[in-house]
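Possible regression after last week's pipeline update?

I re-ran a chain I had predicted before the update to compare outputs. Posting the input and the new output here so someone can diff against the archived version. Not blocking, just want to make sure nothing changed silently.
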Amino acid sequence: MASCIVLSARAADSPPLTSGQTLYQQGTHGESPHTSCASCHGVDGLGIDGTAPAVHWTALTSEDHQPGYDRTSLLKALSQGIAPDQRRLSAQMPRYALDDDVLDSLIDHLQQLSAATDTGIEPTRVLVGISGNSDLDIGFSAAIAAFNSQGGAFGRRIEVTTRPDVLTTLTEIDDRLEERLQTACLVAAVREVRNTSAQRVGLLGRHGDEFRFRLMTMSLPLSAAADVTLVASDNIVDELENGELLDTPRTLVGCLDHLGEHAAALAEAGHEVILAIPHQDALSWAALHDQGPEALRGYALGALLGEALAAAGADLTPERLNKALESIALTAQTVYLEPRFTPRYLLSPP
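New output (post-update):
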């Protein structure tokens, strides 16, 4: 431990300490006050580069210290200023006698700081890993920046990182929300089919979606389009590349991720395209910054993560975040691309 470690204990003119957390965060008061541990080592126990080392329990017991600290050696360091390797600590570090209960409580608090660090949850930030998909990461990072600029949630901002000790990753968020987002988009698409007056409508999807689409279209009223056909997006891609769209209905309804960059080409080819977008803020951001569908999807995932963190509450845990992600309401917005008139940049790669 470096010389800046300041661990205050009960003094004769100070009120009795009852909590190691109080000791760590507030220090002691009275006629001879002592600064808190957090003032040097941070409220998260991660230390300050070049000034003070990390003092959460994992750091104190790691191989950086030979040998590592345990309860007995920590007490000796605090009371006598002697490290586990018998090295004398700097005189700048005060020597104090701690009650057993306060020492145990302090160690418990340091262990809690370690647990928070290991799961990517810290008092002022949450660590989230990137996906490695550049477009997805661009949109996700933009949404996180917007979330942070509004103050984050409960004093925590999100930090996007490549570190392994993260709360979650963009890939995990994508996997967890993918099915529900697709369902939300399909519901929005079916809603648009209900409202269209077109005689033939193509409901966009992937191969393998047939059964789910059949169930959804069974709920369509008689006033809906007379002919609703499932159109596989990969078939449309083939037809576009071959210059053949003879059998495709003029009106197409579906999710952005079913067509992506090809939606603009379909509109330019004379089709009315109605797309379900996973998040309204994502659409606005993509339009403003000339971004494509993958970045738009990344932004939507970042915005939803921010909503989930707010819903998870101040006492954040991985389990509470996962529960919030699973219960957060997902609704898709729709955008109309009129035939031969569409902002290509919205739906094409940058």
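Follow-up from reviewer: compared with the archived run. The two ends are 50 Å apart (CA to CA). Marking as no regression found.
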